[in-house]
């Protein structure tokens, strides 16, 4: 029964005034809340089943192979023999950012990767921009890699049964084709693995990573037999500008080392294992990239690159004079590139999972299937989108668009690690970036420098993408954000 003599309640205390426009853009999600919500989705939770080995294999699977098997043929004409230096520069850029990723992954072990790190440090608008870049990075790189897969599939078919898929069905419009059917097929195969669960996908990926490492070691063992020192006579024929331009393109080949950070809510011991997996994978990948690039340029004059995206298979054929080794390498490349598609597609679904849980994209992306513990609807939607994109857009445009989105996201991570050091210095960190803020500042500078090396067309595409993202945010995300609705008062 109500107390008639009680004074009326002050309703203004129960409904505080809405924050201003600027405050809404800068609202941050506390680290503790991010971690507490880890794994939780609509109707279920992600399952923690991945250890250090699986996390490392996810990062290597998402990274190793893309630049060597697909993009090398495009980068060599830009830099000449100095493409090895381009790989080193791109690797250093990735290394500085990897250090920042390692610290934040151990501190904020959630599925959102750099999107979540930005949400905790720089506010919702910056987080949205970062997440939108990640959609470009992961989603478009899946399509770009899938395009290259068709090249090696044709090499394999030609060497085994003597037939190839017609250009009309194996190349996208603009490259002499109508519809790239192999690219769509490999994305759908990866989708099938992901729908089975994270543990099952990790097992398949581990096998594929072993195959791709064996393929690259085999290439080096055979390719070095055709090594000609004269191919390095003019090491930097196009100058430092060419090295920089090639490095910006080759940065595409380092996309994926941060894939382990998207598995933060499915790792058994995320705070311990994520930093280790990120750093270990980057060291392995960089060493293999530089070694293979050095052998490839030594075995074939640099002016002969660029005619085919299946460059390594062609070198194997030229060195040995036999089609067997080239066919074997093509088989390994088919498996290797499929693992990149699998792991990067995995990362894309987990980014959207985190953004959906925060209300910035529709809830369907955070709906978890109770039996498999995976975001099934999310996986289906993303896979179909990436598959159609892969079948319709030329590889070169995709690679550069992916690089600029990635570099922008990495730049934000380098800023985020410094901000979190200043705002939350007391937080426990399982890994700390040495010489901070110097190394994060170098990471930021390298990212900006490499972004400046990309073409004007790429910048236009990026600008249009960002404009579309801001429209989506202000029309949908800002209003539906979970931070827009104050949490109910505790009793």
TrEMBL record:
Topology within the bilayer: Multi-pass membrane protein
Pfam families (alphabetical): AA_permease_2
Keyword field: Membrane, Transmembrane, Transmembrane helix
Ranges where the record places region Disordered: 1-24
Domain of life: Bacteria
Regions crossing the membrane: 50-72, 84-104, 125-149, 177-195, 207-227, 233-257, 278-299, 324-347, 377-395, 401-420, 432-451, 457-476
Gene Ontology MF annotations: amino acid transmembrane transporter activity
Compartment(s): Membrane
GO CC terms: membrane
Keyword Transmembrane helix: yes
Protein name per UniProt: Amino acid permease
